[in-house]
Amino acid sequence: MNFQEELTKKTKEIEAVIREYLPAEEGFSRTMAQAMNYSMLAGGKRLRPMLMQETFRLFGGSGKLVKPFMAGMEMIHTHSLIHDDLPALDNDDYRRGRLTTHKVYGEAMGILSGVALLNYAYETMLQAFAMAETLLQKEAVIDALQVMAEKTGIHGMLGGQSVDVENDGKALEKDMLDYIYENKTAALIEASMMTGAILAGADAEQVSVIEQAAKRIGLAFQIQDDILDVTSTDEELGKPVHSDEKNHKVTYVTLFGTEKAAAQVAGLSAEAVELLESLNKNNEFLYLLVEKLVNRRK
Q1: Is pLDDT at 291 greater than 90 in this prediction?
Q2: CA 147, CA 137: separation in Å to the nearest integer?
Q3: What are residue 94's DSSP bridge partners?
């Protein structure tokens, strides 16, 4: 397998899915739709919908049932990026190599378009009910929605974000930093992979293994972000580097140094692949995707 060719092909497929579910830019609220779509079409790795789709395939899933969830997940993730960039939070001017939403549409529309994307994600995912052909599939859609809601809210991404904001600039111990990372970043990766498994018919034990693997992938991904913030460039990363230092954020790099942080990434990624392989199911691309996160440069 040529991993890079497969990655490019699958990313294009996901882009097409995302475009299929974007709001129409019309009517009196078209400016908000434009702001939502500006952020959604800014590019990016599309990692979360990709992990969802590949986990769906890992358990033999086929068909369109997963597509509204793929688009919905990217909407939830993009909402978090819009709000992260706001002046009240990270106050960043660039994201994915171009001006952030609030710099183009203003702070108020940045806030509103982020909230609208979060809500529109659930409108989009609910469309899966019409695609469900059996009672088991309808139950799977309900279970997947429950996971998505829980991992997004106070016990997931938004909970982690709130603790991050509350402790901004303060000295943190590893346990609190892990809480922030496990919720602010890993929770959406857990939701993505768990949803893919659930929609494909995985049982509770298998979904639990996926959750454990996804948590490690999420932690590794965030620690690698910490490393890139001090080792990459603005051009390579597509956003300002050294933003953690500028915002006085405690990271794995500030706690342990770059070398030990990199070792943590490698260890977590290896554990994740081992957990996935314990399921005795084959998806070579998924395993390679997880391993490539260790060496990514953006």
Answers
A1: no
A2: 15
A3: 99
Structure token pair of residue 266? 């490698």
> What phi-psi label fits residue 24: left (phi over 0), alpha (psi between -120 and 50 degrees) or beta?
beta
H or E element at residue 95:
strand 94-95
Q: How far apart are CA 83 and CA 24, in angstroms?
A: 22
What whole-number distance in Å separates Cα of residue 53 and Cα of residue 223?
24
Domains of the chain with bracketed CATH: 3-295 (1.10.600.10)
DSSP H helix total and E strand total for the chain: 17, 2
- CB atoms near residue 161 (< 10 Å): 19
Confidence category of residue 242, pLDDT binned at 50, 70, 90: low
Q: Provide the pLDDT for residue 172.
A: 85
* Residues 84-124 pLDDT 10s: 888 888 888 888 888 899 999 999 999 999 999 999 999 99
Encode 125-134: b = buried (16+ Cβ within 10 Å), e = exposed: bebbeeebee
Q: Are 184 and 164 in contact (CB under 8 A)?
A: yes
- The rounded distance, in Å, linking the Cα atoms of 259 and 79 is 32
Q: Write out pLDDT tens, residues 199-220.
A: 999 999 999 999 999 999 999 9
